[in-house]
Design goal:
Blueprint: H1 7-22, H2 26-43, H3 50-65, H4 72-84, H5 86-95, H6 99-111, H7 123-132, E1 137-138, H8 140-149, E2 152-156, H9 162-174, E3 179-184, H10 195-201, E4 208-211, H11 226-234, E5 237-241, H12 242-249, E6 258-264, H13 268-274, E7 281-285
Parallel strand pairs: 1-7, 2-3, 2-5, 3-4, 5-6
Antiparallel strand pairs: 6-7
Helix pairs in contact: 1-2, 1-3, 2-3, 4-9, 6-9
């Protein structure tokens, strides 16, 4: 997906956040931000790919600060908080164990920033209220048909914390007797899940975990490894979580694949691209 004018301030917000997590050296922050301004001034254009631009910017921050996992503490905390509430979520699903409920739970995971919650927050109420909301785009019948007619699926995860709720959907998918391959980032980027976080959340209970060969914002086809490209090409059924993977996969030819996107439209650029309202929850087939 290409950038919009609204991506500009978002890039700068991410840069400030990553710099604050990476270093306390104010002069270094100023130096790096100057470099980011120069980079964006030469590359922020109508036809620019959003994921590639963000990935380059974060790589600059890592290289110049020497901090290669700025969000490490936030990722650990995100999984910890999400795992604490897993029993409560399971109780909710015991009351309604439909496929749609599991899909909603996975998307709710995409809504919540677990690192921003404390143990005193009433996350269970947030979950219950979100479950009452309808999916605005709900290709649930096509999704279940894919589950019934494919023998394997590639599941592209998004953030830590969120992957704990993905685990519940993976358990539901397993009931359809599919082989599951879970794809994670090979290198830290933002609070995206890497191998360590996926193992910590127990995703390996439901399938093989593989790395995509890079640490990019979302999916960037030109940077995945040849090993992962073979895996990707070998799967005709793909489940994509989150906005970053949506942005990347819309840039490539998916004609011969059943690709389902599970996400919450959390920014105006994505909302307009899909044709929905901000904060809508979506399950749709490409």
């Amino acid at each position: 997906m290409k950038i919009s004018y609204e991506c500009g301030p978002c890039f700068l917000r991410q840069a400030r956040e990553a710099l604050d997590l990476s270093t306390d050296d104010e002069l270094l922050k100023m130096e790096v931000m100057e470099d980011i301004f120069k980079f964006l001034s030469g590359n922020f254009k109508v036809d620019t790919n959003s994921n590639s631009t963000g990935s380059t910017m974060h790589a600059m921050i890592k290289q110049k600060t020497g901090c290669y996992d700025p969000y490490r503490k936030e990722k650990i905390e995100g999984n910890r908080i999400a795992l604490k509430y897993l029993p409560d979520v399971r109780k909710i699903l015991d009351e309604d164990d439909s496929l749609e409920s599991y899909v909603k739970i996975a998307i709710i995971g995409n809504i919540l920033d677990f690192g921003a919650f404390t143990l005193d927050d009433d996350i269970e109420s947030v979950i219950k209220n979100s479950l009452k909301k309808d999916l605005v785009i709900k290709d649930i019948e096509e999704f279940e048909n894919a589950l019934e007619n494919h023998d394997k699926v590639l599941y592209l995860v998004d953030n830590t914390g969120e992957i704990v709720f993905d685990k519940l959907l993976l358990s539901k998918i397993k009931e359809y007797d599919l082989d599951i391959t879970v794809a994670v980032k090979s290198e830290p980027i933002l609070n995206d899940a890497c191998m360590a976080e996926a193992l910590d959340a127990g995703l390996d209970e439901y399938g093989e975990i593989v790395e995509i060969g890079c640490g990019t914002v979302g999916y960037v086809d030109s940077q995945i490894s040849e090993e992962f490209r073979e895996i990707f090409d070998d799967h005709t059924f793909v489940i994509s979580k989150g906005m970053g993977n949506y942005e990347g996969l819309t840039e490539i030819d998916l004609v011969d694949k059943d690709v389902f996107f599970l996400l919450c439209a959390k920014c105006n650029t994505i909302s307009k691209h899909i044709g929905v309202n901000l904060h809508d929850m979506l399950l749709f087939k490409k």
